[in-house]
C-alpha cells in the first residue's frame, strides 16, 4: 500500500462549515456593531468631524462672557457717573444754602450795628 | 466561466464595500470553504475552526475598504486565516499531539481514495509541529507553490522546500510505524 500526494490532497480537501455560516457571520457583525455603537458615539464627540461645531460653540461662549463683562463695566461706569453727578449737585446745594445762611447772618449783624 | 465568476465577485466586493450585506454574504459563501478548511486542518477542531473563520470574516468586514480586487481578497483571507491559526496555536498551546498509539488501528491495504487512509493522514498531519503543519496544509489543501507559501509565512523559499520535505518524511515515517512494518512511499 502506498499513499501519494493526491491522497494527501484528498485528506486535506476543502471542508465546509455547518450550514448557515454566512448568516452566523452577519449576525456576529451586527452583534459587534451594536456593542461598538456607544463607544463610537463617545468617540465621535471627540473626533475631528465635530471640531468646527466645537470651535463655534467655544467662540460663542467667549463672546457671551466678554459681552457680560463689558456690560458689567458699563453699568458700573454709569453708576459711578450718576453718583459723581449727585455728589456735585449735593455740594452745589450745600454751597448755596451756606451762602444764603452767611448772607442772612451778615444782614442781621449789619442791622444790629 | 472563471472570468464570469471573477466579475461577479468584483461586483459583490464593490457592493459590500458600500455596505451591502447580501453582497458580503456572497463573499463569505465563496470563501468560507477555504478559510474554514485552513483552520480545521490546522486546529483539528470544528468549533474552534468555525470560531476562527468567523473572526477572519469579521476582520474582513472591518477592512473591506483596503481590498483592491477578488485576487487580493483571496490572498488577504488566506494570509489572515494562516496567521490567526498560528497565533491561536501559540496562545492556547493548542497542538493536537497524536501519539502513534492514538492513531487508529491499521486497516487492510486500501485504494488511494480510502477514507481510513484520509482520516489517518489528517491525524498525522495534525501531529506535525505548527510551521510544518501549516506548510503541508497550504501545499496540499490550497495547492500553493513553495514561493507563495514562503511569501505568506515570511520565510525563505528554501526553508519552505526543506520543511516540506522533512514534513513528508515525518508523515511517511509515522504512517509506516502506525501501519506496522508496511512501507509507504510518497511519490
Q: Layout of SSEs?
A:
The complex is a heterodimer of chains A (about 110) and B (about 190).
Chain A: H1 5-11, H2 21-46, H3 51-112
Chain B: H1 2-17, H2 21-43, H3 46-62, H4 70-91, H5 115-126, H6 130-140, H7 146-153, H8 157-178
Helix pairs in contact in B: 1-2, 2-3, 2-4, 3-4, 6-8, 7-8
Q: Which structural class should the secondary elements of chain A be placed in?
A: mainly alpha
Largest sheet of chain A: none
Q: Could you give me the name of the CATH homologous superfamily of the largest domain in chain B?
A: RNA polymerase sigma factor, region 2, helix turn helix motif
- The percent range for helix content of chain A is over 70%
CATH class annotation of the largest domain in chain B: Mainly Alpha
Task: Give a structural overview.
The complex is a heterodimer of chains A (113) and B (187). Chain A is mainly alpha-helical and 113 residues long. Chain A has one domain. In chain A, 84% of the residues lie in helices and 0% in strands. Chain A is rod-shaped and about 160 Å long. In chain A, 8% of the residues are buried. The model of chain A has no long low-confidence stretch (mean pLDDT 87). Chain B is mainly alpha-helical and 187 residues long. Chain B folds into two domains: 2-91, RNA polymerase sigma factor, region 2, helix turn helix motif (Rna Polymerase Sigma Factor, Chain: A); 100-178, Orthogonal Bundle (Arc Repressor Mutant, subunit A), CATH 1.10.10.10. Chain B is built from eight helices and no strands. In chain B, helix 1 (2-17) packs across helix 2 (21-43), helix 2 packs antiparallel against helix 3 and helix 3 (46-62) packs across helix 4 (70-91). The longest helix of chain B has 23 residues, at 21-43. Chain B is elongated. Mean pLDDT of chain B is 83; it is low at 94-112 and 181-185. Chains A and B meet through helix 1 and helix 2 of A and helix 2, helix 3, helix 5 and helix 6 of B.
Amino acid at each position: 500500500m502506498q499513499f501519494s500526494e493526491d491522497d494527501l490532497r484528498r485528506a486535506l480537501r476543502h471542508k465546509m462549515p455547518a450550514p448557515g455560516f454566512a448568516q452566523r457571520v452577519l449576525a456576529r457583525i451586527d452583534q459587534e456593531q451594536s456593542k461598538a455603537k456607544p463607544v463610537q458615539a463617545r468617540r465621535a464627540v471627540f473626533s475631528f468631524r465635530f471640531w468646527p461645531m466645537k470651535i463655534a460653540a467655544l467662540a460663542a461662549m467667549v463672546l457671551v462672557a466678554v459681552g457680560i463683562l463689558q456690560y458689567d463695566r458699563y453699568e458700573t461706569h454709569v453708576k459711578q457717573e450718576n453718583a459723581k453727578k449727585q455728589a456735585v449737585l449735593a455740594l452745589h446745594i450745600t454751597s448755596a444754602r451756606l451762602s444764603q445762611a452767611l448772607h442772612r447772618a451778615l444782614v442781621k449783624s449789619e442791622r444790629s450795628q | 466561466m472563471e472570468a464570469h465568476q471573477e466579475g461577479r465577485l468584483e461586483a459583490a466586493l464593490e457592493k459590500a464595500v458600500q455596505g451591502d450585506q447580501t453582497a458580503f454574504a456572497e463573499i463569505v459563501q465563496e470563501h468560507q470553504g477555504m478559510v474554514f478548511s485552513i483552520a480545521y486542518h490546522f486546529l483539528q477542531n470544528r468549533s474552534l475552526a468555525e470560531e476562527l473563520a468567523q473572526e477572519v470574516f469579521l476582520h474582513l468586514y472591518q477592512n473591506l475598504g483596503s481590498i483592491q480586487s477578488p485576487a487580493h481578497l483571496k490572498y488577504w483571507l488566506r494570509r489572515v486565516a494562516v496567521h490567526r491559526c498560528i497565533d491561536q496555536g501559540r496562545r492556547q498551546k493548542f497542538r493536537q499531539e497524536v501519539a502513534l498509539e492514538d492513531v487508529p488501528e491499521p486497516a487492510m491495504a486500501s485504494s488511494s481514495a480510502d477514507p481510513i487512509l484520509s482520516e489517518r493522514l489528517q491525524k498525522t498531519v495534525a501531529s506535525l509541529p505548527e510551521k510544518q503543519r501549516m506548510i503541508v496544509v497550504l501545499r496540499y489543501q490550497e495547492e500553493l507553490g513553495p514561493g507563495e507559501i514562503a511569501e505568506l509565512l515570511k520565510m525563505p523559499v528554501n526553508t519552505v522546500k526543506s520543511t516540506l520535505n522533512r514534513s513528508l518524511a515525518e508523515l511517511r515515517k509515522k504512517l509506516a510505524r502506525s501501519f506496522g512494518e508496511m512501507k509507504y512511499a510518497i511519490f
